């Protein structure tokens, strides 16, 4: 069966730094090994704002942003076997082909199959499925969930339990999974009986705090320059909160080393600020402290520290999508949410209609928003 072009609404970012504009767009049918999805809900992640603002070196425009979505399969192209029309699905910005060198290594969740074209804003055949006013639009992160219909590669989608509310489990498409995996997938024994400091208490940082708590961390210190985040951090399981802006001349890393008898076992950067990344590394305990970078830094920004910090046994690492293999692991995370073992509802502070998506971006800047879910 040859599919038809679908006309629907999408939020288009025409140029870096511009607000999104709701436009009527045309969405081509899925090609071979592609899936067309009706997106019902999408979260807004700080990474969408990062690319919209022009700070992403991979940013291309005009583009349909969005990567934290939930929807229903509308149609599938030739050769698709992992999902079928009607399935409830979560698009995956980290694909899982199970065939490439990365997937077969057993060492990483990064997949090589579609990443190159994904980074160029294109489908795997190097073309786009989106058109607006006769002009081609770029895809984003292989997902483009800010459209009522999107097309994704079959390796970039997973079906989940249909009884799960998509307005909640869409957040497993990025933020909550990222945070969960960054902690839960550390090599054993992980954070059990260990001290942890979390820099940045947005959805990512709060998810790290929550997962550190459920995985038996003995002490969790939250760090944020926004004083309103103290109650949030404590609600999710931090015992202590430090505002680095209130330490006078003292550097945050020196303060943390002082109050922890030499530094933390584990630290996490959930800000994307390279100075914070340095502080998080240097707040680690000599000999064994491990610092994970989760935040995404603007184009041109680089990290630095004295190599002596690493020579003396601290480890600097980073993690994308929590190290999670989406097709294999997301269905289980959805079931854990349904069983009450993973929080999602608690992160949703704002809900917006599609027409108000720009307000959703403004909500993020206001500082009292953890996650905004947009009803498409
Ligand atoms: P957010 O903006 O909601 O949260 C960031 C928090 O950091 C805010 O509470 C802010 O007050 C705090 N902060 C800012 N500057 C600080 C400083 N100097 N010291 C301490 N705290 C500071 O963002 P989010 O959605 O939680 O995302 C956090 C970061 O993670 C972003 O950079 C995002 O792009 C990135 N991210 C990465 C992945 C991945 O796979 N690696 C996945 C999702 C998000
Ligand atoms: N395009 C940026 C890199 C952005 C980045 O690091 N993205 C994370 C996910 S952030 C989700 O909110 C990621 O998955 N990275 C691994 C990958 O393959 O992109 C740049 O600097 O070019
Ligand atoms: Zn994200």
Automatic annotation (TrEMBL):
EC numbers, comma separated: 1.1.1.284
Gene3D superfamilies membership: Medium-chain alcohol dehydrogenases, catalytic domain, NAD(P)-binding Rossmann-like Domain
InterPro entries the record matches: ADH-like_C, ADH-like_N, ADH_3, ADH_Zn_CS, GroES-like_sf, NAD(P)-bd_dom_sf
UniProt keyword Nucleotide-binding present: no
GO biological process: formaldehyde catabolic process
Domain Alcohol dehydrogenase-like N-terminal: 31-158
Limits of the Alcohol dehydrogenase-like C-terminal domain: 203-335
Keywords tagged on the record: Metal-binding, NAD, Oxidoreductase, Zinc
Cofactors required: Zn(2+)
Catalysed reaction equations from the record: S-nitrosoglutathione + NADH + H(+) = S-(hydroxysulfenamide)glutathione + NAD(+); a secondary alcohol + NAD(+) = a ketone + NADH + H(+); a primary alcohol + NAD(+) = an aldehyde + NADH + H(+); S-(hydroxymethyl)glutathione + NAD(+) = S-formylglutathione + NADH + H(+)
GO cellular component, one term: cytosol
Enzyme class at the top of the EC tree: oxidoreductase
Pfam families, sorted: ADH_N, ADH_zinc_N
GO molecular function: alcohol dehydrogenase (NAD+) activity; S-(hydroxymethyl)glutathione dehydrogenase [NAD(P)+] activity; zinc ion binding
Family: Belongs to the zinc-containing alcohol dehydrogenase family. Class-III subfamily.
UniProt-listed PANTHER family: ALCOHOL DEHYDROGENASE (PTHR43880), ALCOHOL DEHYDROGENASE CLASS-3 (PTHR43880:SF12)
Name of the featured protein: S-(hydroxymethyl)glutathione dehydrogenase
